[in-house]
Write a structure and sequence with these properties.
Order of helices and strands of chain A: HEEEEEHEEHHE
Oligomer: homodimer
Organism (chains A, B): Mesorhizobium abyssinicae
Largest interface: A-B, 123 and 124 residues
GO molecular function (chains A, B): peroxidase activity
Keywords (chains A, B): Oxidoreductase, Peroxidase
CATH architecture of the largest domain in chain A: 2-Layer Sandwich
Helix content of chain A: 25-40%
EC number (chains A, B): 1.11.1.-
Structural class of chain A: alpha+beta
Number of domains of chain A: 2
Pfam family, one (chains A, B): OsmC
Number of strands of chain A: 8
């Protein structure tokens, strides 16, 4: 029987289910604040860092500070010293859906062999360049294509991907409006 | 007179204005596709790369491939081998607004000395953990705080930030809904 096989995708589902139980009983611990700091370098080049976040009732500090350079590419007369900001959004969306696929597969006892995504966001630059006020600045649409090798039927693999979308933070952020407040100190 | 001083923020505004002119006359060249590839490693850890994009009527290739690891932190029983996907979105938003501030300042002949942003996204984990279906998976809100040192009055600095929001691709993506299609090949 398939149920005799224990899938191991490296996701600690027991810990996640325990966290769900614990946070159900302590809703204030479930209030998280995710953070980044960004410093302008020159031109369109900036350097961002990610280290601390708030959760489980206190500031949490990592052992590592993650650092990211962002810039525009040379075709925009920039120096291409990092990925463009919109590409960071694509990385966030693809990695969120991919982590979700691994977690859902673990929970459903499906062994993953490989998961690869390509993601593409369409953008008409007539928006950000101010050529046409009817064109939005952001993506007109995003397509994510998955190639997944797993010990499962195609319909079960498709169900993994669907459940990951349903529980993805970044998918929600991109597909639904989020209020952003920008202030100058 | 202030107009006698030439600000240099490292942004080639002449090239951007020339691009605007050129793309106004060749709208098909303004159709861009931004891309990333994401490969699952283990658990919630994935590795993404950013290199090519499509624009100006053809595939464009960079000299460098930018690489990014994403993971969940240790408090989620993961190995913290990279920033979390939602932190990538914060990096994208902060870096997009910051590049915009530099470009608008250049266009307005305002010399920037330093631009620093801190960005924070609030998230109630009751959403992604499936504890409360009324709570969204993504951020309940995002706050960006700028500290800007520039040769300009406070109201002019605030106007820079406002104009950057108005022209930011990532600000648009986060504050407005974007259609995302996910397919399994």
């Amino acid at each position: 029987m398939a149920s005799a096989v224990q899938a191991d995708n490296g996701v600690n589902v027991e810990a996640l289910l325990a966290a769900k139980e614990a946070l159900t009983n302590a809703p204030e611990a479930a209030q998280f604040k995710w953070r980044a700091a960004c410093e302008w370098k020159d031109g369109t080049h900036s350097h961002s860092t990610v280290e601390s976040f708030y959760g489980l009732g206190q500031d949490q500090h990592r052992k590592t500070t993650f650092a990211f350079d962002a810039d525009h590419p040379e075709v925009f007369a920039s120096l291409d010293q990092g990925a463009t900001p919109v590409e960071y959004v694509l990385v966030g969306l693809a990695s969120c859906l991919t982590a979700g696929i691994a977690a859902v597969a673990q929970n459903r006892n499906i062994q993953l062999k490989s998961v690869k995504a390509t993601i593409e966001g369409d953008m008409d630059l007539a928006g950000i360049l101010g050529i046409d006020s009817d064109v939005r600045n952001g993506f007109s649409g995003i397509t994510v294509k998955y190639a997944i090798d797993a010990d499962a039927k195609r319909e079960d693999i498709e169900a993994l991907v669907a459940q990951s979308q349903k529980r993805s933070a970044v998918y929600d952020i991109v597909t639904n409006p989020t209020n952003v407040t920008v202030v100058v100190n």
